[in-house]
Amino acid sequence: MIDSKVTELLKKTQLSVTDGRRRILELFLQHEGALSHGDIEKKAGEKFDRVTVYRTLQAFLEKGLIHSIPSSDNSIRYALCKEECSEGHHRDDHVHFICNQCGNATCLEELVVPSIKLPRGYTAQQVEVLVSGICKSCSSR
Which of 25, 99, 117, 125 could be 135's S-S partner, Cβ–Cβ 3.0 to 4.6 Å? Predict the structure, then answer.
């Protein structure tokens, strides 16, 4: 099931189907939260080096397959985009949550980022809301 979904997504975004892209996209489909570059390197196995992972993430970002989630410690995580994203047009107008205990990053898609009214002369290109705290998994322990 995941294998056919991976192929479908890569073809839909006009990316060539390579072993690296397949494996990294599988990781995103199998993982509920966001992944860091380091997480992907560890989970993908020894056959993918840092540059391959970086180039794959950049291609996925450009094609609207994933979006980036900045964190307060200046690290970046990545999460799958929804259907509304496309090449050059990300629609990740939802809240991102990072757990201070386990470090997991989650997209809270049911919470929409509020509209921000900027002063005249300013144009928003991206609005990010990052909430940190304790996730429901850590709270129940």
Answer: 99
